[in-house]
Every structure is written in structure tokens, then in C-alpha cells.
Amino acid sequence: MEKYGPMTGECEVRIELAITLHMAGEDAEAVEHIDRALATADRLSLQPQRAKALHTLATIKDDKDLRAQADTLYEQLGLPKPLPPPTLRE
Questions:
Q1: Are the beta carbons of 48 and 25 closer than 8 angstroms?
Q2: Kind and range of the H or E element at 56?
Q3: Rounded Cα gap, residues 29 and 80, in angstroms
Q4: Which tens digits make up the pLDDT trace of 5-26?
Q5: What distances in angstroms separate CA 71 from CA 5, 7, 28, one per listed residue?
Q6: What whole-number distance in Å separates Cα of residue 25 and Cα of residue 21?
Q7: Considering the entire predicted model, what is its pTM?
Q8: Over the range 15-52, which residues count as b (16 or more CB within 10 Å of their CB) and which as e?
Q9: For the chain, which residues make up each domain, given as ranges?
Q10: How many whole angstroms separate alpha carbon 13 and alpha carbon 72?
Q11: What pLDDT shows up at residue 44?
Q12: What pLDDT is stored for residue 9 in this prediction?
């Protein structure tokens, strides 16, 4: 994805991989992938992907401040706030 895919796709893949890793109890590695997704989203101004990554990170870390940041960004973008992915523990 990094070499040939669209960068939006890389963000999405990293977020989904983070969800899978979180389910497997590999939270440290999951956070690494979210951090890379956030870096790409920030670099390319991919705000919907940034919101999704923040939302996923908030769930992994059980962090209300991160969730509030994601919710605010969803509202600014006019996008509905998603429910936590059913695969994540909450």
C-alpha cells in the first residue's frame, strides 16, 4: 500500500489492522499502526481517516479525550459519529 496504493487506502488498512491486533491483545502494535495512519492522515489532510483513526485509538486506549477529539472532528466534517467497531472491546 505504501508503494503503490492510494494513501487513503493505507490509512484504512492500518486502522483495520489495528482493530485486528487489538482483538488479538496486541495493543502496542495496534497503536503503532494507528500512529502511522494518523501521521499519513495529517500529512495529506485526510480528515475522515484522521477521525476514524482517533476513534479507534480512543477505543484501544479507553480514552475519553481522544473520543471527544474524534467526535468533534466528525461533527466538523458533517459526518455521523460511528458506533465503536463491533470487533473492539469496550
A1: no
A2: helix 47-61
A3: 28
A4: 566 788 999 999 999 999 899 9
A5: 28, 23, 23
A6: 6
A7: 0.84
A8: bbbbbebbeeeeeeebbebbebbbebbeeeebeebbbb
A9: 7-77
A10: 23
A11: 87
A12: 85
